[in-house]
Amino acid sequence: MKLIVTKNYEELSKIAAEEFAKVVIEKPTAVLGLATGGSPIGMYKELIAKCENKELDFSKCTSINLDEYIGLNPEHEQSYRNFMNTNLFNHINIDKTKTFVPNGLAKNLEEECKNYDNKIEELGGIDVQLLGIGNNGHIAFNEPGDELSAGTHIISLTESTIEANARFFDSIDEVPRKALTMGLGGIMKAKKIILIASGEGKAEAIKGLFSGKITTDNPATMLQMHRDVVVVVDEAAAKLIK
Ligand code: F6R
């Protein structure tokens, strides 16, 4: 695992965007695994700027997102589809018909999960997967627990995640309790992974990534088994790494 510690969030966003951009330049048809949340916003701004300066061309790329809340309409302000459109897709030259986010309104959610995994296979797997990390070590919405799932699945969000995500909603009661999430198998099959984390709240989870131990209590520890992971964290998030 390659570790890059940056002074602050701004530098983190720049470096993560550089790492991500390398893949798109090398492979213009790349399949991009994307994340939502607070962490990638700065990096997405950098990618938008690179696209505007013609340093990057997304016209032949496909994207596949990690997760989506169950029950939120794609137009809902806090749906992950809306997040992606607003923070990235509306500002770059990607073909929106080639951007995939799980459908949290699907009538048959089990089938939606199966179809999502088939879609990843059909696309030939993910070339670069961007990940944030929960305060509790979740990646995508693979929450800590007794067991982890390989495939895309329905997950009940933990109290810690509901509390963390309440900042995006008017009240905690509005945070959906369930989501569809790519599983650890889908993530681990990505050819390259870039994980970003900023702030002290992530320090404990990040420490686990460099512990040499794998535990379902911190799902991100699984990434230690992957061949090509770049972890870009600011000093606050890195502070407990030994
Ligand atoms: C989002 C996702 C989550 C977030 C994580 C960190 O698509 O999969 O795992 O990356 O909850 O969220 P932020 O960046 O808001 O701290």
TrEMBL record:
PROSITE patterns: GLC_GALNAC_ISOMERASE. InterPro entries: Glc/Gal-6P_isomerase, Glucosamine6P_isomerase, Glucosamine6P_isomerase_CS, NagB/RpiA_transferase-like. Its EC number is 3.5.99.6. Catalyzes the reversible isomerization-deamination of glucosamine 6-phosphate (GlcN6P) to form fructose 6-phosphate (Fru6P) and ammonium ion. GO terms for molecular function: glucosamine-6-phosphate deaminase activity. Pfam families: Glucosamine_iso (PF01182). Residues 11-228 form the Glucosamine/galactosamine-6-phosphate isomerase domain. Gene3D superfamilies: 3.40.50.1360. Belongs to the glucosamine/galactosamine-6-phosphate isomerase family. NagB subfamily. It comes from Clostridium hominis. This is Glucosamine-6-phosphate deaminase. The active site is at D67, N136, H138, E143. It catalyses: alpha-D-glucosamine 6-phosphate + H2O = beta-D-fructose 6-phosphate + NH4(+). Transmembrane segments: none annotated. The keyword Transferase does not apply. Pathway: Amino-sugar metabolism; N-acetylneuraminate degradation; D-fructose 6-phosphate from N-acetylneuraminate: step 5/5. Keywords: Carbohydrate metabolism, Hydrolase.
